[in-house]
Design a protein that fits this description.
By secondary structure, the chain is of the alpha+beta class. The chain contains nine helices and five strands, in the order H-H-H-H-H-E-E-H-E-H-E-H-E-H. It has a five-stranded mixed sheet with strand order 1-2-5-3-4.
Length: 226
Amino acid sequence: MKQDEREEARRLRRENGMAITDICKQLGVAKSSVSMWVRDIILTEEQQTALNKQHYAYWAQTRGAHTNAIKGRERRVIYQEEGRQKAREGDPLHLAGCMLYWGEGAKNRNSLKMSNSDAGMLAFYMRFLRKSLEVTNERIVLRIVCYLGNGLSAQEIEYYWLEALGVPEQYLRPTTVNLQPKSSQQKGRKLLYGTMEIAVHETRLSQHVLGAIQEYAGIEKPEWLM
């Protein structure tokens, strides 16, 4: 078996000018073995040039990704500082909304997401989004997850949430209806209207809120910048 792999490795190196790391991946062999097997093979000038270009392209790609990651983190620092500055203004609605999000929201780097069954809580959260963060309806994504079998149709559940939140139907994504276990069918489920998820997919707003939370609470969460 090793002899077959050795011959194939030498062929790939000699005929195709393949990089040692690529040979390792293709054959599933350790790099030390491949290096030893092909060390006496001299690549043609064309093969060496092709390898150099391949290595440069990989280096440029990884360098670009690293640069983008650094720039992305720098932007998140700026956005969090904006949230901290807003927190220092002492606006009660902003304070309450950020603290609510700290307890109930997803700590996502690039999106604000909150899911709950309490319509009153989510209506307040919508007021926070609109007034404190100036989020317009078209930037909001709504999703309902519910069970049927409690005397309400999916359309009635959707109407309930749209009325409670004051949002037009066009911003509601298709409702997810889960199958109800037989045990729950007999007892009846308490969450008649299921849960509503409110999402705003904007890094600036997500980091704004995360920065404000840290300012209000007097804590530091460096992992929220990662």
